[in-house]
């Protein structure tokens, strides 16, 4: 248990939309923590349950050690807090419980009776082995919303497999449609640059939990939620999945082009690359006017989007030749003035220096025990009455164990006994 250092006290924030909702969070890595961070941003009291340090394990969420980069302290030295962990765990309180011990299991069951939501992402069967499965906990607290996050769900032939975002991107079809065309240099399977199966699963889990809380408040009845990375990956194929189901033809990789819209891809300007994202026939006509080739908008091969898709191999090289004649900023200024969708391709330094990103409040700063100002990516949700707030920095391991257990009615002697038993 690590409580020698604690987070600075922040000014009180207005109650969030989920004020009064208490979440017991036994999830680790990304999908589960992304879900519970979203709930915490909206005002829920999220209690992050982590493994205590031991002889063979440093304790805590694995992502605490997934670096570099690590948070630097006031002297410029690396701390034990990886940026990966910091990005998914703000607004939570951390307690340490060893759920492999009988005393730790009993403690979790005691806490659950006073919680609204329970989130876990252990392998199928682990929670039952610990007596912490949905059936057991819903008996103790029938109003509980119990959310399991796994790679493949609680049922089906893959249920016992470990699930990882990278593997699910491959198995779930995303890598078959991501990357350069196979017939071009650099073609082949490509994963997305962030763990989108994890992130989407976390967001879908958030939606499911909110729906279950709505049902619970109306009926008094809790329920179990079964979230799977593979299910989510299949669902998020969106129009590409619909394309296959409608045609029976599996889409292929198209690089930076769009399968259903033309021109909608990256083009090279005179001094770099830019995005042209023409979404309808009117926008194509405006683009052609700006580009000085109005005759293309009247060409029967290119008038309608369906025509442009069919004649992609003819049109795109013609547009590429035109776009190489001017600098990218000249194009962007002219196209934006004409209301033709387009964009720059920024690196992350440019993203976080962008005046619009800053004006929208997408970077937030919060004091942390190790530094006076920790910069984090802010929540994108903008609610007029109950906006998300940053009330706490990502917690240190076990920072709130004593405080939280006292709130649940455990005395100092109770905690000492649990510590002696190796449960906390």
Automatic annotation (TrEMBL):
Lineage: superkingdom: Bacteria
Q: Provide the residue span(s) of the region labelled Disordered.
A: 50-71
Task: Give a Pfam family name.
Answer: CoA_transf_3
Write out the biased-composition intervals (Basic and acidic residues): 50-64
**By its UniProt entry, which SUPFAM superfamilies does this protein fall under?**
CoA-transferase family III (CaiB/BaiF)
InterPro entries recorded: CoA-transferase_III_domain, CoA-Trfase_fam_III, CoA-Trfase_III_dom3_sf, CoA-Trfase_III_dom_1_sf
Keyword Transferase listed: yes
Q: Which GO terms describe its molecular function?
A: transferase activity
Q: For this UniProt record, give its keywords in alphabetical order, as a comma-separated list.
A: Transferase
Question: Could you identify this protein by its name?
Answer: CoA transferase
Originating organism:
Aquincola tertiaricarbonis
Traced from the root, the source organism's taxonomic lineage reads:
Bacteria, Pseudomonadati, Pseudomonadota, Betaproteobacteria, Burkholderiales
């Amino acid at each position: 248990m690590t409580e020698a250092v604690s987070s600075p006290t922040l000014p009180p924030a207005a109650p969030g939309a989920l004020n009064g909702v208490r979440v017991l969070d036994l999830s680790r890595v990304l999908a589960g923590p992304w879900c519970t961070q979203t709930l915490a941003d909206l005002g829920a009291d999220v209690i992050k349950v982590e493994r205590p340090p031991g002889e063979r394990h440093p304790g805590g969420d694995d992502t605490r050690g997934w670096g570099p980069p690590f948070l630097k302290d006031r002297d410029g030295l690396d701390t034990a807090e990886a940026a990966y962990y910091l990005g998914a765990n703000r607004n939570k309180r951390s307690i340490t419980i060893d759920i492999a011990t009988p005393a730790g299991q009993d403690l979790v069951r005691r806490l659950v009776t006073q919680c609204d939501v329970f989130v876990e992402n252990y392998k199928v069967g682990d929670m039952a082995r610990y007596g912490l499965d949905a059936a057991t906990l819903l008996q103790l607290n029938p109003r509980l919303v119990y959310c399991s996050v796994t790679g493949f769900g609680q049922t089906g032939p893959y249920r016992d497999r470990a699930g990882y975002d990278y593997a699910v991107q491959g198995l779930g079809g995303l890598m078959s449609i991501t990357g350069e065309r196979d017939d071009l240099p650099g073609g082949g399977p490509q994963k997305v640059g962030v763990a989108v199966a994890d992130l989407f699963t976390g967001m879908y889990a958030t939606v499911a939990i909110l729906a279950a809380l709505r049902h619970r408040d109306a009926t008094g009845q809790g329920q179990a939620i079964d979230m799977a990375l593979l299910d989510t990956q299949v669902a998020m194929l969106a129009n590409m999945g619909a394309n296959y189901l409608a045609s029976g033809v599996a889409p292929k990789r198209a690089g930076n082009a769009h399968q259903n819209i033309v021109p909608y891809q990256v083009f090279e300007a005179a001094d770099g690359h830019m995005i042209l994202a023409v979404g309808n026939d009117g926008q194509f006509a405006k683009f052609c006017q700006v580009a000085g080739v109005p005759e293309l908008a009247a060409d029967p091969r290119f008038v309608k989007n369906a025509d442009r898709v069919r004649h992609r191999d003819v049109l795109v090289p013609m547009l590429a030749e035109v776009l190489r004649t001017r600098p990218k900023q000249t194009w962007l200024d002219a196209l934006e003035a004409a209301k033709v969708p387009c964009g720059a391709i920024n690196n992350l330094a440019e993203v976080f220096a962008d005046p619009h990103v800053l004006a929208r409040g997408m970077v937030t700063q919060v004091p942390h025990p190790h530094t006076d100002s920790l910069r984090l990516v802010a929540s994108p949700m903008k609610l007029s009455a109950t906006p998300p707030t940053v009330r706490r920095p990502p917690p240190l391991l076990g920072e709130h164990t004593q405080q939280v257990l006292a709130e649940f009615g455990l005395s100092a002697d109770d905690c000492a006994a649990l510590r002696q038993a190796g449960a906390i």
